[in-house]
Every structure is written in C-alpha cells, then in structure tokens.
Amino acid sequence: MADLPFFWQSVVVILTAGGLIYLLQAISGKTELDAVIAYLQVLGTFR
Questions:
Q1: DSSP result, the chain
Q2: By C-alpha distance, which of 14, 32, 13, 12 is closest to 22?
Q3: Residue 2: pLDDT band with limits 50, 70, 90
Q4: How far are the Cα atoms of 2, 12, 42, 43 from residue 17, in angstroms, in the given order?
C-alpha cells in the first residue's frame, strides 16, 4: 500500500468505502444516506 502513488491509494480507499456503504445498505435495507451516516459514525468510533 505504501509503495502506491497517493492517487491510487485514494482510489482504493474510495472503492473500499463504496463497497462498505453498499454492504451496509444491503444489510440494513436502508437508504444510501442512512448507510453513509452509519459509515461515518463507525469511522468516528475508531478515531
């Protein structure tokens, strides 16, 4: 991961975040906005 250019790291992070949001959406059956909010709350707990 460290040897990748910053641009590709960003792409990987965005794709990973998108995948997690999609999974949250599928599991919860909620809207995308709810999934994004839940994802941000999860991120907040790790800081």
A1: -TTS-HHHHHHHHHHHHHHHHHHHHHHH---HHHHHHHHHHHHHHT-
A2: 32
A3: low
A4: 18, 8, 12, 10
CA distance 21 to 32: 7
Q: What is the pLDDT of residue 21?
A: 79
**pLDDT of 13 strictly over 80:** yes
Cα–Cα distance for residue pair 30/10, rounded to 1 Å: 26
Q: Are 24 and 39 in contact (CB under 8 A)?
A: yes
> Largest Cα–Cα distance of the chain, in whole Å?
37
Give this prediction's pTM: 0.38
